[in-house]
Each structure stands twice: as structure tokens, then as C-alpha cells.
Amino acid sequence: MTMWLPAGLTPTQLNADAPTPIDLGGQSLLLLLTDDEPMAISRTCPHAAADLTTGDLYRRRITCPKHGYKFDLESGRCLYPADENYRLRRYAVELRAGLIWIQLPDGA
């Protein structure tokens, strides 16, 4: 089961060049703006638990600042080094009355 929670932000408050860190429902997330659409991912790198807040964003990819692992923002796949064991967690996002809402798993 899942629940939807408001992030308390609008897409116009996001920066296309830098992720916006938020804590929501016990989860540490990053809000991103790609092609003018909001996206939510886990703030923690699945490889070494580094904070991705200062990761580099480029062409729908984020690079972990700790070891340089690159993740595709659409699929969550680890592109460099290519490793299926590490997948970036993504969260569903909706706009409701202009506000960003994020779907979290129950008990999050």
C-alpha cells in the first residue's frame, strides 16, 4: 500500500541545475526538475550511502559525489560503472493544484 504526501513546493521553486533536498514521511528525498517536470529520487546513493544533494546533474543523469557512480534518472539504473546491483530509488510524482505530491510506500 502507498500514500501520497504534499512536498510543499511548486515546480517553479525547483532549480533545473541543482537538486532540492526534502524530508517527507520519514524519507530523505531529492526533488529535481527535468524538462520542466518534477521528479523525486532517494537522497542516498545506493552504492555507498553518500548524500546525492551535491551530485552533478547532466542530461537526465546524476553523479554521486563520493565515488563518481552515474545513475540514469528515468530508470534508476547505474550507468557507470554498469552494475545492476545498484539502482537509484525513484518516487512517483503528481501535480495537484500546482503543488508537487510524492507517492511513498506505507510505513515509510
Number of strands: 12
In terms of per-residue confidence, which ranges show pLDDT below 50 for 5 or more consecutive residues? Answer: none
* Oligomeric state, counting identical vs distinct chains: single chain
CATH architecture term: 3-layer Sandwich
Number of domains as seen in the coordinates: 1
Structural class computed from helices and strand pairing: mainly beta
What is the string of SSEs from the N terminus onward?
EEEEEEEEEEEE
Percent range for β-strand residues: over 45%
- N→C terminal distance: 11 Å
Q: Calculate the mean pLDDT score and round it.
A: 94
Largest sheet, spatial ordering of strands: 5-6-7-8-9
- The portion of residues assigned to helices is under 10%
Number of H/I helices: 0
CATH superfamily: Rieske [2Fe-2S] iron-sulphur domain
CATH topology: Rieske Iron-sulfur Protein
**Regarding CATH, which class?**
Mainly Beta
Q: How does the overall form come out from the CA principal axes? A: globular
Rg result? 13 Å
Q: Describe the biggest sheet?
A: 5 strands, antiparallel
